[in-house]
Amino acid sequence: MTSLRLTTFGAALALTVLAGAGAAHAAPATATPAVTDAHAASADVPPFSNGFGLTLVPEDTQVHSPTDFTLTVTTAQLSGKHRIRILLPTAYATDPDRRWPVTYFLHGGSGNVNDVAAAPALHAESMITVVPDGGLKGWYADWLMQNTAEGKANWETFHLTQIVPFIDANLRTRNDRAHRAVVGLSMGGFGSLHYAQARPDLFGHVAALSGGIDFGMWQVRAAVLGTELNVTGAWCASSTSGSAGSGQCTGFGPVVDSDAIFGSPYPFFDADRVWKAVDPAAPTNLAKLSGTGITLYTGNNDLIDVHTEAASNTVKARLDQLGIPSRLVNYGNGASLAPSCNGGHNYGCWAPAFADYVPRLEAAFAAAG
Predict the structure, then answer these.
(1) CA dihedral 174, 178, 183, 188 (to 10 degrees)
(2) Is 132 helix (H, G, I), strand (E, B) or coil?
(3) pLDDT tens for residues 252-289?
(4) Is the pTM here over 0.85, yes or no?
(5) Would you tell me how many other CB atoms lie within 10 Å of the CB of residue 51?
(6) Residues 6+ apart with CB under 8 A from 359
(7) pLDDT, tens digit, for every residue of 109-155?
(8) Distance CA 227, CA 138 (A)
């Protein structure tokens, strides 16, 4: 059936959501570390080899420190070049016989791999953290349309069938699910839960922070549409992605078709079947998380996180109904989490949320042997 394209009503719907769940987020306040010349510092980082469909671009390597560097790769699954930031434990080089758990961090909409600098807890001493490029509006999906202004856009394939085995082949990892986690925030919150459901063989632990994790909510669908269409207006008021003071979502890249990622969002004649198939809150998808460590974080004190709270509550209730253990941390206005947190959609809350989560994840990794 021909998919239903976004109408004037649909555009108005996206505009109505001042800041729908899982969309753009405030840029991290932490500055990107200074970059060392890649060639001069190449001996300070582990060697990497091409493979699994990824081709390294050595001249674009950025070395922030021997334990913090960014690779650039090309792949037939995506247009252009894409970065992978890698954080190593301090002892990685000095303990050559040790293998390490791995956590994959998925950034939010309009974000990039350098967002991880705003969450210091993710640079931990007992695990490797990998931060792959997720696109300004990639939504951690293999797009339904591959001929938009974004070009080739198979983000899920890039991450799950290329980057994961590439990292395992080039670094000393513990490559079983009990020692691999996927975590994300906002758009990346959808990505983390979706990836854990799509590949439970890969990930034994998952965390979603302020995530757009219920595609049954029209507010979350509108968030996706807003990023596809770069909708002008209040949508951008919650984000620094647009040109200063312009109200334009220019930071999300070129406008694409409203059906580009998941097809039609409208629940008529099964036109939204892709949305339903990948919905992290769908009981059939949640059932795939049996045996997975699941953690959700959300506030409720701004126009975005009031929706991520609703989505997180739905996911938690359905997991409970399925008898699958999970942990939900609803920090409300932020007072119970940290002085920096106002309960909103920002790193003032996400950084302390990760500071709470990472030690628990490290303990789970250790308990797995």
Answers:
(1) 90
(2) strand
(3) 789 999 999 999 999 999 999 999 999 999 999 999 99
(4) yes
(5) 13
(6) none
(7) 889 999 999 999 999 999 999 999 999 999 999 999 999 999 999 99
(8) 9
